[in-house]
Amino acid sequence: MDSEADPPETENPPKRHKCSACYKQYKKKEHLIEHMKISYHSLHQPRCGVCQKHCKSFESLREHLTGPLPKGLCSTIFSQQGCQLCLSLFDSAVSLREHLETCRLSSPAPMGTDAMPYISSQIDNLDSCDENGPGGRPRAIAMDCEMVGGGSDGSLEICARVCLVDEDENLIFHTYVQPIIPVTNYRYDITGLTEENLRNAMPLKEVQEKVLQILYNGESTGKVLDGGKARLLVGHDLEHDFDCLKLNYPKHLLRDTAKYRPLMKTNLVSHSLKYLTRTYLGQVNFFLEFLSALIVSSSAFCFLYDIQSGAHDPYEDCISVMRLYKRIRGQIHKEEGYGTLTSNNNIGESDCWQSEKVSNLTPDELYAMSRSDYRCWCLDLRPNLAP
Ligand SMILES: [Zn+2]
Ligand SMILES: [Zn+2]
Ligand SMILES: [Zn+2]
Ligand SMILES: [Zn+2]
């Protein structure tokens, strides 16, 4: 049924096989099937509010909507009714303006390094007041660590500071950490830390216990696999934090803004937290950003949400990852007809695509068979998933 011939006339173009999700077109049906096998399209992919095209990442959706080579009609409509931050589309310019009041966030006041060396005022409250969030879903905690350098060239990573923040942006734990080997570089420009900060700091072992106490939230390690009371942990490149803390936490409870597919630059490369914060939480536009860079001291530009412009502040970073997580978790995605995520959700890796029937399916039916290869954070709000 494929026509290999050149299109004879425009009124009667050769039949193309078009992907229902990303609109890529193929001359041959089997090429479309091949494409579906490896695309993992789903209702959870970032999508254009105008044409409903599915994109692999928010970054590619942003390109589709705003350029450098934006799609004509989509970009015209989006430029009038779309939010540059979360990329949602609104019915009118008025509702967009209302939305922006809540979507554009200002950065929190940094904690600085004058803060008390150790804060954990609310740990006790946590245990009694919120076992789980509304609907029995697990509550999330954001964590950030700052590292100083050890070894002869200062390249060994030593955890020197840990900060944990809850979903409501309350600081629940902050401490400086006693270096486990001699510090050869305090990386002052980045960490703002000096020898003074780490004098009398908390020993690593004690820090580990505190962190685990907060994360496991009274849940036994064995039961964590089914969720229970243990918390979801939000962070940016958590693996690195855990390496330096010399800790482990179950992978299925991690929500990592550096590893979450739709937030990544490519399949393998992450965006920086600084980039994600400006782009998704508070960047107004490139022109204003450019101006603000010129007029650094002008208070007129203080609405730009920018972190890490000086020393990294673990509290600010925690707030950023938590806000990113909540923004993505709050996306409204239709529930799939096939029920909730299970271990065999990934049909793309099963035999289903091999079966002979597949070649007779329409593009829409192929799309209906396709499953995501990552777990969308919107599922964290679905009560039927919280055991
Ligand atoms: Zn596609
Ligand atoms: Zn989703
Ligand atoms: Zn579009
Ligand atoms: Zn928005």
TrEMBL record:
C2H2-type domain location: 17-46
Subcellular location, record wording: Nucleus
Assigned keywords, A-Z: Exonuclease, Hydrolase, Metal-binding, Nuclease, Nucleus, Zinc, Zinc-finger
Chief location bin: nucleus
Any GO molecular function: 3'-5' exonuclease activity
GO biological process: rRNA processing
Cited Gene3D superfamilies: Classic Zinc Finger, Ribonuclease H-like superfamily/Ribonuclease H
SUPFAM superfamilies: Ribonuclease H-like
GO cellular component terms given for this protein: nucleus
PROSITE patterns assigned to the protein according to its UniProt record, in alphabetical order: ZINC_FINGER_C2H2_1, ZINC_FINGER_C2H2_2
PANTHER family in UniProt: RNA EXONUCLEASE 4 (PTHR12801:SF123), RNA EXONUCLEASE REXO1 / RECO3 FAMILY MEMBER-RELATED (PTHR12801)
Family: Belongs to the REXO4 family.
Name of protein: RNA exonuclease 4
High-level lineage: Eukaryota, Viridiplantae, Streptophyta, Embryophyta, Tracheophyta
